[in-house]
Structures are given as C-alpha cells and as structure tokens.
Specification:
Length: 182
C-alpha cells in the first residue's frame, strides 16, 4: 500500500464514485475522492477536488471562493486596489497553483545528466525542485491589466504569497489523503 500511496498525485482520481471505497491492496480513484470528504474548509475542499480529481465542474465555484478570499485579504491588509484587478489576480494565482509549470531544463525531473560526473546531478535552473518559473511579468501584466512597475513593486510579491498558501494546502491535502487512505 505504501508504494501505491507514493504514486498519488493530482488528477489521479475522479468524482464519479464519491463515498464508495473499494478496500483491498489497490488504490482506486474512487478511494481518493471519498477520502477528500473529511476536509471541512469549502475553499480547500473545492481546490482538492479540482486539482486531485480533475473536477472541472467545481472550477467556477472554486474561482469564486478564491476571489472572495483575495478581496478579504486585500481589505484586511489595507491594500487599495480595484476589485476587478483583485479578481483577475485571484484567477491568475489559482491557475498557477492548479497547473504549476515544470522546469524546461530538466523537464520537471529535478535532475540532469552530467557526462563529466558520469551520472545525474540536481538541475541548476530549478535547484532540483523540477518546478519552472511562475508566470512571466509580461503575461502577468496582461492578465491583470496593470503596468510593469506595478508588477515589480506590488503584484509579484502578492502572487508569491498566494502561491505559498496554495503550496501549504497541497501539503495539507496530501497529508490528509495519505492518512485517510492508509
């Protein structure tokens, strides 16, 4: 069962059989969907269903939750930005979290072949993580409709904060699934 849990990754399950468990030594997509049922935070639960189960029907509800959360975060921190910009930002950060980019140098593996050492070494472009650079500044500017200076001085750090929160959710969901599916 440990080997099966190690292969658990986003979009390896579907929502068709939520609530059913198959038991036994194999892990089926239905088991993953059923295990997500223990998450009580609606925003995190929707995120888990969309990312891990590929439930595209929940994406619009998840996006609405993300918009509400970003508006609230900006309000309590005192950031004065137009609501439309915040909504576009919420969409960009959510999509970046749901579909992380992989490093082009190592093709997402985190290691590259080194002929001099006759083996594999950590990729220097991504520091061995396998993850590529987030959305480019130009694409980010276009997506939320702001200027280049605004991206550099304000929005890039907010994107990093938002992606950090989504990474925490990924770890929480992964831990939850592994605990439930033991």
């Amino acid at each position: 069962m440990i080997e099966v849990l190690a292969m658990l990754a986003p979009k390896t399950s579907n929502m068709e059989s939520v609530g059913h468990t198959t038991g036994g030594d194999s892990l089926r997509p239905e088991d993953v969907a059923a295990a997500l049922g223990g998450i009580v935070n609606k925003h995190i639960l929707y995120y888990a269903y969309v990312k891990w189960c590929g439930d595209e029907q929940l994406f619009s509800a998840l996006l609405q939750e993300a918009r509400i959360a970003e508006r609230y975060r900006f309000k309590i921190k005192g950031y004065k930005k137009p609501q439309a910009q915040i909504d576009r930002f919420a969409r960009v950060s959510l999509i970046a979290a749901l579909i992380p980019r992989h490093c082009k140098a190592c093709n997402g593996s985190g290691s590259v072949h080194n002929a001099a050492k006759n083996g594999w070494v950590d990729c220097k472009h991504c520091d061995g993580t396998g993850l590529g650079k987030d959305i480019s500044d130009a694409a980010f500017e276009k997506a939320i409709k702001v200027g280049h200076r605004s991206i550099k001085s304000f929005w890039r750090s907010k994107l990093n904060e938002s992606l950090s929160e989504y990474l925490e959710w990924d770890a929480l969901i992964d831990s939850h699934l592994k605990r439930k599916l033991k």
